[in-house]
Amino acid sequence: MCFWRNAKEGLWIFNLYRILYMASPSNYSTAPVSEFLLICFPNYQSWQHWLSLPLSLLFLLAMGANATLLLTIRQETSLHEPMYYLLAILSVLDIILCLTVIPKVLLIFWFNMKTISLAGCFLQMFIMNTFLPMESSTFLVMAYDRYVAICHPLHYPSIITEKFVIYAAIFIVFRNFLATLPTPVLAARLNYCASNVVENCICANISVAKLSCGDIHPNKLYQFVSVWCLLGSDLVLILLSYCFILRAVKRLQSGGAATKALSTCGSHLILILFFYTLLLVFIFTNKAEKKVPSEVPILLNVLHHLIPPALNPIVYGVRTQEIKQGILKLFKYRF
Predict the structure, then answer these.
(1) What domains are there in the chain, each with its CATH number?
(2) pTM score
(3) What DSSP assignment string belongs to 2-51?
């Protein structure tokens, strides 16, 4: 009887160990993730369709204003100058960013189309991480254009030429393409074998990477370094150029010229600071996840791809007299 009781206890312990071993997460046969689910606002699913109304209006405004600006610059031969070519580059970047992010967000809100393939997700991540720094670099080149125009007006025609715009465009593309390409590559190399639910409206790098089963510290480190090196250096150089501009404006003896220069450059600087401030707020709210509701950085991320594209053509374009006249001629010609 004693032997039989010990044998039963030994068998019971053996079965217990086997159950615990099989229940271990490392022993599950998990299939690799083939698609992601974008859950925009996990705690506020019921009111997403209300948010789609202002987002769709801003999207239409951004697309319409940038398309009108591009058509005006193309149609009006008097606008075929370097400064307006830079505005056209900015409008192209705004359109691409809007089309990359906002239609998918609206499809989620309207039709609950939350699925996105791995390839589509990493492509969206690449475009966002590349074209936002490209827009920052375009702001830098435009600030340099204004600096030369105000501080060295006699040398402006010889410095800011069509060749300068071509070189600037090559610099903008290759600098940011090479610097941001590792971000989606690092995310794509991770092994996604667990949850496929992304708590974001878009395929943001960290939101996707944290779903993997591997180490994401290289992803976080590279994104931090690349963002601060690219956008941080651009912001410092932009502020420096506008400091030189303000110093030059103070020396202008003509009050009308000084007022016009301050009005133009002031509106440009406010828009640039808005671009970087919104980005910084998003970064810091993302870091303070425990203190800030998770919906705040998600909403800021979406708005950062929508509000600047809607404001850029209005502030840079409509406030410029030559472009305003070109737009009036365009609509008069079309209608």
Answers:
(1) 58-102+127-191+213-334 (1.20.1070.10)
(2) 0.85
(3) HHHHHHHHHHHHHHHHHHHHHTSGGG--PPPP-EEEE-S-TT-GGGHHHH
